[in-house]
Amino acid sequence: AQDAPYPPVATSARTPRPRTPQDSTQDSTGRPAADSEPTDRRGEDGPADEEYRTDEFSFIEEKNDESEDVIDWLKFSESRTERREEAKRRGRNRVVAGVVVLVLALTGGLGYLWSAGKLPGFAETETATDAKPDTRHVIVVHLRELGSGDISTALLVNNQTAARGTTVLLPNSLALASGEGGATTLGRSFAAEGAGATRDALNALLGARIEGTWRLDTPYLENLVEMVGGITVKSDATVPGEKDGDRPLVKQGAGQELNGVAAVAYATHRGESEPQTKQLARFGQVMQAVLKKVSTDEDAATTTVESLGQIPDPHLSEAQLGAALARLAKHARAGAYRTELLPVESDGTLSEKTAQGLVKEVLGGSVTNADPQATARLTVRDASGSRGAADDARVTLVNGGFTVVSTGAADAPAARSTITYRRDDHAEQAKEAARTLGLAADAVTKGEGAANADITVVLGADYKP
């Protein structure tokens, strides 16, 4: 056979149908037409590499059952792989969503605990910095005995935030700053400077805002007890009757029912050699028992106060006092009431323990103690019978650096001059005053003097101006 000018067309196992390339011309034998030229020819120097154009060949595909099965299997495999990938993707999305929800839940929970102050390690810091102070309403009450003029003082504290009440008993030895720059005591401040100055001095000492003063003279306490129908106390002492042979006004023991007269007698009773704090504690018992019987209705309590007929303090009207007593009565009836004594040091000041304890916790204040060593206040009484002696002594003492608050005549003449001081911390100043006036050192003694001064000077006939 004659060699074909081109290699035979590649075929598959099945005989393909011959297809005519679009850009070539064939004759009846299937060979290229004579006028068509191959892309590459043999060169003159030797046979060249034979190259063919791709468009000169066609592969014929024939559909059969086996190819359809292969296609179906490929489609099945592809769809199953896609489903697996989709399932994995959804699983990953669920995990991510779960983690996000968990983080948000933890963040929210921690935020709530932090804001509520329940997170360990952070509660104390938040309480210290963000907690608001309790709302308190404080009034001071002075029980004054008509005969002697002695007073018993207490603070009535209504802690509105904590829903509890407290009576804080104040000893008369409590050191206060006087209006003249010196130091005085609670007992003498009320007698010499009045209720308003005493309230201001207590505010300065305790750092508490005392809203007003309730001066409760003993006859008014008697009437108040009668108005509430009497009180019941646990008596720690037997109070004798007014006259020898009379039945005791109050018997010792629990469940003692007291009328107005008996309540006053018990509140002011001070046994022989007893400190003033014992009598003060009895006054506190009476006040708490009265509050348990006062009406919790503010209008009714105000009516009770008005019925007493007292002259109200300018800073505390009858309506304000009635409302305050009604609120305290609610605490007393609910069992959320207590009575506490303010501990006072020997020099009249308050200790750091008291400042951080009762004063801070109950009153919400901070202590600023009066200086017990401050310049003492002196009063001069002339018992020498020499005109002008008191004025001369006053000038001498002022020039010596002392504070003289008053001068005047003594009740009776005296042959010998005396200088009396109340507190031990004023002993040296009393001796210095004696030296300044040219008096003997033995003229100085400790004892009771004028109510408005720390040191009392009585000029006798031995005083030489």
Automatic annotation (TrEMBL):
Keywords: Membrane, Transmembrane, Transmembrane helix. The chain crosses the membrane at residues 95-114. The keyword Kinase does not apply. Residues 1-57 are annotated as: Disordered. InterPro entries: LytR/CpsA/Psr_C, LytR/CpsA/Psr_CW_biosynth, LytR_CpsA_psr. The keyword Transmembrane applies. Residues 376-463 form the LytR/CpsA/Psr regulator C-terminal domain. Pfam families: LytR_C (PF13399), LytR_cpsA_psr (PF03816). Residues 38-57 have a biased composition (Basic and acidic residues). Residues 185-295 form the Cell envelope-related transcriptional attenuator domain. It comes from the Bacteria. PANTHER family: POLYISOPRENYL-TEICHOIC ACID--PEPTIDOGLYCAN TEICHOIC ACID TRANSFERASE TAGU. Belongs to the LytR/CpsA/Psr (LCP) family. This is LCP family protein.
